[in-house]
Protein 1
Amino acid sequence: MRPTDIPPVLVTGATGRIGRLVIGQLLDVGVPVRALVRHAGAAATLPPEAEVFTGDLTAPESLDPALSGASAVFLVWTAPPGTAAPVVGRLAEHVRRVVFLSSPHRTPHPFFQQPNPMAALHAGIERFLAATRLAPTIIRPGMLASNALAWWAPATRAGEAVR
Ligand SMILES: NC(=O)c1ccc[n+]([C@@H]2O[C@H](COP(=O)([O-])OP(=O)(O)OC[C@H]3O[C@@H](n4cnc5c(N)ncnc54)[C@H](OP(=O)(O)O)[C@@H]3O)[C@@H](O)[C@H]2O)c1
């Protein structure tokens, strides 16, 4: 299949740290990209090759234009949990593949087994995905280096211990 024959992949969280990297890597290998943004002005900050669609994960119907004709979705969920089920339902209606950026909620280390609403949200979205006809790819990365900026940089700069 020539790159131009590949149907587009929709990337949510397109303006975020991870979404931007995913967009760049897809474009690098010739995969057409659709970028979901909440505010049209964000288009100026994305690669010009990406086709920009406005939509919001809290308004499931707003995703339809971006999903129509897409083949796959890279799903970054940073919204409240309320609309996760209907959004997953819409993904299943439109695309064949979903890659979901989850979190390390299955890692047995006690650090990752503390009560954590984000972990519960991600586990719930994984269950929603598993209940569809989709064969999702679940990514459960550990701690991202970007955490250091907000969590540990102040202590490090102040010469304090990071526990
Ligand atoms: N930190 C960790 O160690 C770690 C580990 C594993 C997994 N994760 C997961 O990684 C994800 C965060 O990724 P990131 O660092 O790339 O995030 P980020 O840089 O904070 O970007 C968040 C993205 O989500 C978009 N967004 C926010 N609310 C939205 C909504 N209602 N509808 C549509 N888009 C919305 C933002 O768009 P706007 O530009 O419109 O705001 C932005 O593009 C989270 O799901 C987190 O749980 C993190």
Protein 2
Amino acid sequence: MGYRVVVVGATGNVGREMLNILAERQFPVDELAALASRRSLGTEVSFGDKTLTTQDLATFDFTGWDMALFAVGSSATKDYAPKAAAAGCVVIDNSSLYRYDPDIPLIVPECNPQAIHGYAKKNIIANPNCSTAQMVVALKPLHDRAKIKRVVVSTYQSVSGAGKDGMDELWDQTKAVYNPTSEHPPKTFQKQIAFNVIPHIDVFMEDGSTKEEWKMVAETKKIVDPAIKVTATCVRVPVFVGHSESVNIEFEDFLDEDEARDILREAPGVMVIDKREAGGYVTPVECVGDFATFISRIRQDSTIENGLNLWCVSDNLRKGAALNAVQIAELLGREVLKKG
Ligand SMILES: NC(=O)c1ccc[n+]([C@@H]2O[C@H](COP(=O)([O-])OP(=O)(O)OC[C@H]3O[C@@H](n4cnc5c(N)ncnc54)[C@H](OP(=O)(O)O)[C@@H]3O)[C@@H](O)[C@H]2O)c1
């Protein structure tokens, strides 16, 4: 016997990936409902070799459904996730709405699978921000060995992190650069994104950091260890899919770069590609469609006592969103619902 699963936001970047990944990983689905807004009522989406017709989230009855994977943004999540949860359907949410609620677990299955049992308080589980998810997969096994004190991270985040509209804006602006008769002023992003980089993702906070940067700090603490200090600079770059991060880590204990490489080679969800030669590292275009978080450029930071640098790349629509949500669904099935 399998599960009755709902994908909410099935016409979006993350929702479509959820459908692909549920099929690719042969998640035990008995029945699947694909939901979006009324605008997309009747739109067809693919689930493996099947075609599903999207239904309207506003009128959907969650009673009798086992789990709902939400990928619709905070405002629609606020309106509908509590209804799904109250109907007995476990919500796995991709928005930032519930991530910092102490009664809702925030889970990356490679790092804190034990947190799954906390789902029962509100029938809701949160999925982290895309930049956090890929970084913590690499940090956790290193932290277990040498205790991380501080992380300095700079991100290079693709436009798909801003949804379908972000991808369209990069595409349209890129074409407009070669065809000056068509204009595409910034709408989704604050400045031109084609052939440019923008050090601003989400809103500004009082201390001058952005909400995206704050999320990386708060979520790393909740998932890995509240004692870890994190400082982040998040930058949008003109890449369609795949987030990259330059990560500097300071440890309590000495950790040799070769041992770090060995630890990461064994770590779940991590793939080390680290040859010290031209092309011996991973770039975002190479990670698209993959499940792994790729780690390259592992090297000692000789400016501090116990420091390492590394380069971390992953498909933000997969590990950063849809894959992690499906992994949570698998964990929930294995540890709690036990149907599959
Ligand atoms: N992209 C990433 O890397 C990433 C990573 C982590 C988390 N997330 C989060 O995942 C969520 C979805 O992101 P995305 O990139 O997939 O966005 P997207 O491509 O813009 O898709 C948004 C989806 O939400 C649906 N939707 C929006 N408002 C709705 C409403 N009122 N009622 C019903 N459906 C509604 C849309 O349906 P229509 O087509 O009908 O408008 C569409 O299916 C967001 O919370 C985002 O922050 C994204």
